[in-house]
Amino acid sequence: MTPDTLSLRYFLVLAEELNFTRAAERIGIAQPGLSARIRRLEAELGAALLVRSTRSVELTTAGAALAEAAPAALAALDRAWETARRAGAGELGALRIGYSLSAGAETAPALVDRLIRENPGLEVRAVPMATPEITPAVAAGRIDAGITRGEQPGRGVRRFLLRSQRIGVQLARNHPLAECAEIEIADAAGYPLRLPDRAANPVVHDQLAALFRDTEPQPRFRTPAISFDIAQRDLHDGLTLAPAGEAAVTAQPAGLTWRPLRGAPALTLHLVLPREQSPLHHRVRAAAKSLAHELDWLL
């Protein structure tokens, strides 16, 4: 039979005081209540714990053994209880985050750093994924959270706006338009425009392409042979432009710059969480919300 842990804690106080009156006062209960607790504990154990007389209280052999072993057992129980409480509150466990490569330069690392710093009991693992795979993975429980560029379609999830960026273009510093503080969309359309492979992110590809839908002449779109060329060699020709959010400035190769497009809508990044959320998911959401506020991520 599992012992009554409260009675066991009362017994340990009595074992230190060896006086019912002082022990009851220290615990904050009436002496008859303490006596009843001890009798119940002895009945559960099937052995006497104390030898009582009108003048003194002494521990029996069983009482002495229990007084020696119980503190460690209760401490272990307290640790188990606290571990379970922290796990239930989302403070412990493993957190799996999938992020699109476009979020890997700044957004995903900032959120991961915040989660690790504020939740030392969490094991955070973030992995790059193809954007169209992130939302289904969150909905199916293969990952706990996702960061996507653009509001990706899919069921079984909730999306939260994490970041909003101005859309502009990356271009070589010696490009004819690099001297402009802002570039007109029609002027940009007069040069070759590099768009990401549509299969990598149909939502953002279509959003960027739509910027130039009504321009004359019709723009010349290019898809790079290498989807994620960190050096962005194709822009060094001094002609090609790459529509991109303002975060592109963070990891910009030498020789390139970024200019906003006048009148262009915002490019968004979203935090994706399951529709049914645990305390762990609420913790991720809270960290993302505070981070977005502190870093002015929302226009």
TrEMBL record:
Residues 1-60 form the HTH lysR-type domain. Pfam families: HTH_1, LysR_substrate. It comes from the Bacteria. Keywords: Activator, DNA-binding, Transcription, Transcription regulation. PANTHER family: HCA OPERON TRANSCRIPTIONAL ACTIVATOR HCAR (PTHR30346:SF0), TRANSCRIPTIONAL DUAL REGULATOR HCAR-RELATED (PTHR30346). Belongs to the LysR transcriptional regulatory family. This is LysR family transcriptional regulator. It comes from Nocardia tengchongensis. The lineage of its organism: Bacteria, Bacillati, Actinomycetota, Actinomycetes, Mycobacteriales.
